[in-house]
Amino acid sequence: MQQGLMLLIQLVLEFAPVVAELVQNRNKSRLGLSKYEPIEAIPEILKVLNPANKKSGYVEDFEQARIFQQQLVADNHQTRLTIAAQERETALKLPEVNKIFDSWPLRLYPSQILDHTNSGHTPLKIFIAPPQVDFDQFGDRRDENIFQFELMLAEGLRDFLNKHYSLHSQVRPTELLAGAWDSKRFHSESSIKALFGMLKTEPSLILESENDGDYLNFRIAYWGLGQGNYYYKTIARLPYREILEESAKRRALEWKKIRDELVALGEKLEEVNQLGKDNVINLEILEKVEKWHKKGIDISKLSLQYQVNRQDYEKLCQVLITYHCLVAGWVADIYHLVDRGVPPLLPELLPSLLSDAFDLQSLGVIASGYKQVYQALENERCYWIPELALQLAQSLCHLSDAYGGKLRAWANEQLNYSVSTWLQLRQISPNDSPNPLQVMQSAVSVKDEEYVKKLREYFVAVGDTQSIADVDEILNRIANLKHQVTVQHILLRHTLTGHSEKVTSVAISPDSQTLVSGCADKTIKVWNLKTGKLIRTLTEDLGKISSVAISPDGHYFAVGICQHPKSNVKVWNLNSDKLLHTLLGHQKPVNCIAISPDGQILASGSNKIKIWNLHKGDRISTLWHSFTVNAAAISPDGTILASGSSDNKIRLWNPHTGDPLRTLNGHSGEVKSVIISPDGEILFSASADKTIKSWHLTTGKVLHTLTGHLEEVRSLAVSPDGEILFSGSVDKTIKIWHLQTGELLQTITEHSGAVNSIAISHDGQFLASASSDKTIKIWQIN
Fold first, then answer.
1. 589-624: b (≥16 Cβ within 10 Å) or e
2. Which one, of 362, 351, 428, 352, lies nearest residue 396 by Cα?
């Protein structure tokens, strides 16, 4: 089929930008919900029916009932007016509806199509509007009785859809309504418009072929879910007469070989020619054409009447079937990808569909069509793009085995798009290195193993030995990461009771001997971390405690109080229980505090952040936030203060000058906790959006997003070696993560209330967790 994929190519060139625009604009055109005003009589009815509103005495009750009846009469009148208006509207529209049915192109009524018996996903409905070809012009009319063009076309498409896009599929359902089109009556815009007017709620594809002299105009009409208009365009002119005659010529040449073999065996030429039927006529024409061509005669001016038969009609039909399958598969892929996120299937089917020679560049256009749609989806489904592009590259790669290396360029383009998108998702520029595969090693995790294995399959298929070696290095890196991941054995050592309300915060001293806890019961308790015994309780003039922190030298601890008007910060000597400072100035509840690693400054957050001299109690500066500050952390070198707030943002500051450094956007919920890794390179944040994010502190780029918690994440702690992250959540669990791989190692479910705060000891051997279940649990880490 030398015409090849040009029909599909034209579709892709025209349709892919339309789909891309639909995807990009659909969020801008969300349908608003209608607002219904309550019936005016309802408030009065409620007054009558509500005993609390009844006045005492017969006269008052009678008056209320009279008013109520008058209102009912008025409402009844208004209802009749509304019904009358609707009846008038219906009467006015009846002629319009009847006129629509004058152009209704289907043998099915709308009610039959709109009757949903499939309780699964909405299928793409496919209609065939077959061509009305005058085959009489090609000779023998006897074939008209045995050749059923429309039935063959429907059967071919039906076989393809039943195998790959079945109506009963839970993944890519389509419903072929073959025979529904009244092909003898309707084609073109009026029929499509009538269909869309009635069936706009049903995603539909119409494959229409219309006779135009020696050509078939191939058109498609399409609309998807919630689409405000339909797409309708002629995407190709198929030279069906040329296809029929080319088939007749091939038959004549094949006959010539058989004829010559029979004559060579001694058979008489006249008798052999009697067996050849129309092949003899077509061969004579071919031989004449060859002779005239050698004489320089322009045969394009001649009307040569080749004799065609059923075999040629079947060849034409097979070409049309292939085109219908390619277009139906491509549109079904796009529909299910855009509306439900199902990856395309057609790229895998191309090798089996394209068994004849075709224009190789056509596949490049198909690939570009998919790429346009993928790019349109990048904002909302960016994490899918690498695998989708790689899948298409693999399909093109398999085709290149059959059609030569020229197709390799199109496959490589998709491969490069896949890898570059993978790197961009990890905040790495593909231009950072001439070899992107080597750059991948620095960002790969165990979760990427399947993707990398598919990359290797691709390079093996194309015989790229250097890339195979690079990918093997990545796989070795993943193997090493998997080897490093060891599940932490967590043993519950103590459950500390004594607080009478939710425990909001815990902190562990640098020598890993002491635990300080703050609670909504307005007390602070000091515990022996290893024995779990209570050392002392502080209750002097405290409000509800939001947060506690211990200085790096272990001499002091600070407490944030979130109960207005007692909102303040108090600093005690940890060993003597002597109150050193009461830091005043916050006008709203203090939600978090942080002490710098050098022990010189203290940061406290409410609706603003205040920086204090820890030892003197003097206020150094105020950092202005527009929203409530929920969390704060200071980098190991003391140069960066990170704060998380209820506007879903994280802000970085210079704590000494108060200058803002950067704002990190990425969470879709309030930021509840921030911590910085021991090496000062990575910032971790926990959010009400149920995720944990890791950020490169210098560049502000997101490195990983950890998902798994079912409710908001309130607290984070990182191990001293920077390898393990602990998270506490409202879902009552503590989760343990391996930071290099992003793997969830373990989930602890011992608490019966939200986990509000967690802290890890400086030697990495103990973890403390505070919960709304009024307990503190001490865990030993092996």
1. bbbbbbbbeebbbbbbbbbbbbbbebbeeeebbebe
2. 351
Listed in sequence order, the residues at least 6 apart from 712 whose beta carbon sits closer than 8 Å to its beta carbon are 669, 670, 672, 686, 687, 688, 689, 690, 729, 730
Lowest mean pLDDT of 415-429, 488-502, 665-679, name the range: 415-429
CB 558 within 8 A of CB 595: yes
Taking only the tens place, the pLDDT of each residue in 612-654 is 999 999 999 999 888 999 999 999 999 999 999 999 999 999 9
Token output for 611: 């920086």
Q: Which of 592, 510, 591 is nearest to 551 (CA)?
A: 510
Omega before 565 cis (within 30°)? yes
Per residue in 411-449, pLDDT (tens digit) is: 888 888 889 888 887 777 777 677 888 888 878 877 788
Residue of 502, 500, 529 lying closest to 516 (CA atoms): 529
> Which tokens go with 353?
């569909």
Nearest alpha carbon to residue 659 among 621, 633, 632, 697: 621
According to DSSP, the residues that pair with 495 across neighbouring strands are 777
DSSP 91-117: HHHHHHHHHHHHT--BSS-HHHHH---
Residue position matching structure tokens 């349908």: 31
Beta strands per DSSP E along 534-627: 534-538, 545-550, 556-561, 568-573, 579-583, 592-595, 601-605, 608-613, 619-624
C-alpha span between 138 and 458 (Å, rounded): 48
Contact indicator for 425, 383 with CB cutoff of 8 Å: yes
pLDDT at residue 50 is higher than 70: no
d(CA 44, CA 619) in angstroms, rounded, equals 60
Question: CA triplet 319, 324, 325: central angle to 5 degrees?
Answer: 100
**Residue carrying the six token digits 């209570």:** 534
What's the confidence (pLDDT) of residue 100?
60
Give the residues across from 177 on adjacent strands: none
35, 66 contact by CB (below 8 A): no
Dihedral of CA atoms 674, 678, 682, 687 in degrees, nearest 10, equals -20
What torsion do the CA atoms of 608, 613, 615, 616 make, to the nearest 10 degrees?
A: -100
CA–CA separation, 219 and 211 (whole Å): 11
Q: In terms of Cα–Cα distance, which of 578, 555, 581 is closest to 570?
A: 581
Task: Tell me the sheet residues that pair with 632.
Answer: 643
pLDDT of amino acid 183 = 60
Which of the four pLDDT bands, split at 50, 70 and 90, describes residue 384? confident
Distance CA 430, CA 184 (A): 56
Pair of tokens at residue 495: 């459950």
* pLDDT, tens digit (0-9, with 9 covering 90-100), for 330-350: 889 888 887 777 778 887 787
User: Mean pLDDT over residues 112-117, rounded?
Assistant: 69
- Show the 3-state SS of 535-551: EEEECCCCCCEEEEEEC
Tell which residue, 234, 163, 230, has the closest CA to residue 202.
230
Beta carbons within 10 angstroms of residue 536's beta carbon: 9
Q: In what order do the strands lie in the sheet with 660-664?
A: 629-634, 641-645, 650-653, 660-664
Q: Is the full-model pTM beyond 0.70? A: no
8 Å CB contact between 562 and 607 = no
